[in-house]
Write a structure and sequence with these properties.
By secondary structure, the chain is an alpha/beta fold. 36% of the residues lie in helices and 20% in strands.
Length: 268
């Protein structure tokens, strides 16, 4: 389905179905809503599962004028109000999507029943992050000659399938569905400052998740939890930064326990 963001930007939402409390997933940089499909298929049907293509990604508007985290937060707030009027939702974000989820929960506590932040930290600034992302994106072949070539480039299944599903096939090969400059601009906004000043306004139960081989050290996860009230942490085994792609079953097990507690109002 298509909705409008805070400044009228076109946004695409994937509805995975289900009934009951709404759950909205936010992907990371250069990702897409469909990468949550393996997790969505494992969630109980008692939850209504949705995923947003963040601005500049997937089937959402490719070149938005504003690529800031502030604009992303406004998008999520408008999507929540449109898709779940009068009912707070569970918000799950990974990487850059985790920052967006954290800030949304802080600024719009009325919209968020439970918060899950996966492989993301509100720490900063990180002045080298945008250049690092730029170099990584420049390393992608343009285009990939075949789906098989893309799968090999991204490290093979199951991890690679989520990334490759986000590509689009054209006559001359497989292309990203995003603009490199927009990705760099998003990272500049996300990494350009710390987001801890928002933390006092996060009022809902929260779960912080890392992969055992991910980017967030266990000590940092523990330190993050110590700065927030009503928080639990989890480390998913056999998982790197893209926890939900590396170990969808392990991540879903952790997630379902949290969702059921927060949906029932029993907390942590």
């Amino acid at each position: 389905m298509n909705v409008r963001g805070g400044d009228g930007v076109g946004l695409a939402v994937v509805d995975f179905g289900g009934d009951g409390p709404p759950v909205l997933f936010l992907h990371g940089l250069a990702g897409h809503a469909g990468e949550w499909s393996r997790v969505a298929s494992r969630l109980p049907r008692e939850f209504h599962v949705l995923a947003l293509d963040l601005r500049g990604h997937g089937n959402s508007e490719r070149r938005p004028a504003d690529a800031s985290i502030d604009a992303h937060v406004e998008d999520v707030a408008m999507v929540a109000e449109r898709l779940s009027p009068g009912e707070p939702l569970h918000l799950i974000g990974q990487s850059v999507g985790g920052i967006v989820a954290f800030v949304t929960a802080a600024r719009r506590p009325d919209l968020v029943r439970g918060l899950v932040v996966v492989e993301a930290s509100p720490s900063g600034p990180h002045p080298d992050a945008a250049a690092s992302i730029s170099s990584w994106l420049d390393s992608w072949p343009h285009p990939f000659a075949s789906r098989e070539d893309a799968v090999r480039f991204f490290g093979g299944p199951p991890h690679a399938d989520g990334w490759v599903d986000g590509l689009v096939e054209r006559a001359d090969g497989w292309w990203p569905r995003f603009d490199r400059k927009v990705m760099v601009a998003i990272m500049e906004s996300a990494a350009g400052r710390a987001w801890w000043d928002e933390r006092a306004n996060v009022r809902c139960p929260a779960l912080l998740v890392r992969g055992d081989a991910g980017w967030i050290p266990e000590a940092e996860l523990t330190a993050m939890a110590g700065r927030l009230a009503g928080v639990e942490t989890a480390t998913v085994p056999a998982a790197r930064h893209d926890v939900h792609l590396d170990n969808a079953a392990g991540f879903t097990d952790v997630l379902v326990r949290f969702l059921k507690r927060t949906a029932s109002g029993t907390g942590l």
